[in-house]
């Protein structure tokens, strides 16, 4: 089994660093007071939430928003340390600390879900992604290491399980014959729900169809038709 290979432990290093940080201790507060900072970072949180929703609902792996993740993780660590170091002196302080704890947990959930969603997509289409010429712009350094190690484990697992019993000419795991392709790719024809974020005028879809995109409109369309608008930030996925 893939999970039984000791080398597979390294694949979760991105999560382990986050899970083992001081952010895990936010439920145990004995000395808490009102602190400023985290809840004022609304725009960064909003951007990451949009990136998370887009990633969850997109059929393909989108560009990693590392600058958002790193900024929020730094702010979370700072906020946790401030809370732990500040003495609690009143009932209002207790209430404020509870609000901050809830906000911290909410942001942690979004970050972890965002990373898990990306890792799931990487596992689904590893070989196809590794062939992408823009892979270093698409993934973080740790995600790229994860993808390469994961693909090695899959190939080794397949070889040990059954490929070694077949003739050598049948050992390839990336062959394509007609419409049959052994490499799993993203389904860009999948339908998606979108919300228009800015007026884009008439947008040409497949078969020369035209649709008027006005701010706050909601549509269900093929992902391939709105992909460029998503990447430019004109729409977001729901």
From TrEMBL:
Residues 187-238 form the DNA replication complex GINS protein SLD5 C-terminal domain. Pfam families: Sld5 (PF05916), SLD5_C (PF16922). Its main location: nucleus. It is found in: Nucleus. CDD domains: GINS_A_Sld5, GINS_B_Sld5. Keywords: DNA replication, Nucleus. The keyword Nucleus applies. Residues 95-158 form the GINS subunit domain. GO terms for cellular component: GINS complex. Gene3D superfamilies: 1.20.58.1030, 3.40.5.60. One of its GO terms (biological process) is double-strand break repair via break-induced replication. The keyword Nucleus applies. Belongs to the GINS4/SLD5 family. The GINS complex plays an essential role in the initiation of DNA replication. This is DNA replication complex GINS protein SLD5. It comes from Circinella minor.
């Amino acid at each position: 089994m893939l999970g039984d290979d000791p080398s597979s432990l390294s694949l979760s290093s991105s999560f382990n660093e986050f899970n083992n940080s001081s952010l895990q201790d936010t439920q145990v507060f004995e000395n808490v007071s009102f602190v400023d900072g985290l809840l004022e970072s609304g725009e960064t949180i909003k951007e990451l939430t949009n990136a998370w929703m887009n990633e969850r609902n997109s059929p393909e792996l989108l560009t990693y928003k590392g600058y958002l993740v790193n900024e929020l993780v730094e702010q979370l660590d700072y906020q946790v340390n401030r809370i732990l170091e500040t003495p609690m002196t009143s009932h209002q302080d207790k209430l404020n600390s509870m609000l901050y704890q809830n906000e911290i947990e909410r942001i942690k959930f979004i970050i972890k879900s965002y990373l898990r969603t990306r890792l799931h997509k990487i596992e689904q289409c590893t070989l196809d992604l590794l062939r992408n010429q823009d892979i270093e712009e698409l993934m973080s350094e740790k995600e790229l290491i994860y993808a390469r190690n994961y693909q090695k484990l899959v190939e080794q697992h397949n070889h040990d399980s059954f490929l070694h019993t077949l003739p050598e000419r049948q050992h390839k795991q990336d062959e394509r014959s007609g419409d049959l392709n052994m490499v799993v790719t993203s389904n860009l024809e999948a339908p998606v729900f979108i919300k228009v974020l800015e007026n884009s005028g008439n947008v040409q879809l497949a078969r020369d169809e035209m649709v008027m995109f006005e701010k706050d409109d909601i549509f269900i369309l093929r992902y391939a038709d709105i992909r460029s608008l998503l990447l430019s930030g004109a729409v977001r996925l729901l």
